[in-house]
Amino acid sequence: MFLIAVSTFLLLLFASYYLLVVKFIFGWNRIKPLSNSINCPTKAQLSCVVAFRNEQANLTNLINGLRDQQHVNYEVIFIDDHSTDNSWSLVEKQIADLPHFRLIKNKGKGKKAALSTGVVVSRFDYIAFTDADCLHSHNWLYSLTKSLESSHADLLVGPVRLTEPHHFFELFQTVDFLSLVTSGAGAIGANNPIMCNGANLAVSKEVWLQAESLLKSKWASGDDIFLLQYCKAHKKTIAFVKSQEAIVHTYPELGLKAFLRQRARWASKSKGYSDRFTILVAFVVLLTNILLLSLPLAYMVHINLGLSLMGLGMLKIALDYMLIKQGAIFFNIKLDFVRYLAIACLYPIYIVVSVVWAAFGGISWKSREV
Hints:
Layout: H1 2-30, E1 45-52, H2 59-67, E2 73-80, H3 87-94, E3 101-105, H4 111-121, E4 126-129, E5 134-136, H5 140-151, E6 155-157, E7 160-162, H6 168-189, E8 201-204, H7 205-211, H8 223-233, E9 238-240, E10 248-250, H9 256-268, H10 276-293, H11 295-301, H12 303-331, H13 337-360, E11 364-365, E12 368-369
Parallel strand pairs: 1-2, 1-4, 2-3, 6-9, 7-10
Antiparallel strand pairs: 4-8, 5-10, 6-8, 11-12
């Protein structure tokens, strides 16, 4: 009787997980690639808002990329969130001859206050957000404006990937990040958004101002997810930009501790989620990985239980690979099944450690407690 009850629970849980993955695969394939002909003019105007704190190592590459944006009318607003390094003077010097670039101080404290400071002084009706540690193609903003014109979206979610991996640890991060971005895009394509990334967003200024008070300043991060959940709850139009020109690159973490701290910080904001479907997805993913981590215990309880769990886990890995491979093709990331299998075997450990850290460990960001 016990084995029947446990087996039934396992089947229901993993079936729920499989349905979610299939939903995201179909959703990804429903999104039409953006036609990005440079010969097509755009009338849209964008204010690009960048909040930064102690980013002097990344700001030069950021400014170089934003300086060279093509075929679009735009401004860039840098907001310094009380940096203690030379970030302010570096930006001030490098944008001195760029009249459409501005540098201002954060009127409050933290990233969300900095974004608010930038949005309030912006001149245009649409706001593009990115992070200071990002790299952009010359047609990034052009791709966003073309997508805004074709989709008429209130919130535009852009693609983000890590820079080219050089070893297994960076590949692990790349695949993990790829799974988040592809799942998020697939959920948008399935008309049930669950996540986005503040490194590449565009939103109507009117909508952002409406959502501002609900971005939950209690959490230092989460401005992107809470904005998405506001738009979803208020029936705003949300679209994903399926264009290689729109891809924003960011860097992997240098060490395991920094990587886990980052993921724990991301997981910690889930306490503020209000969207039921997002909470359901997070719960199913977490519980599935916890059960896979308990595979040795399942064998100890009963060999058939262990075999069943292993079979369910193998099917999970295969379906995950089908979804992630879709994203890998789009982002031009080389990912064979053998290397993915090694990553998939480590994945449950990483998920559980990140969640435990988020729940019980101290989390800091830019020398501030989160």
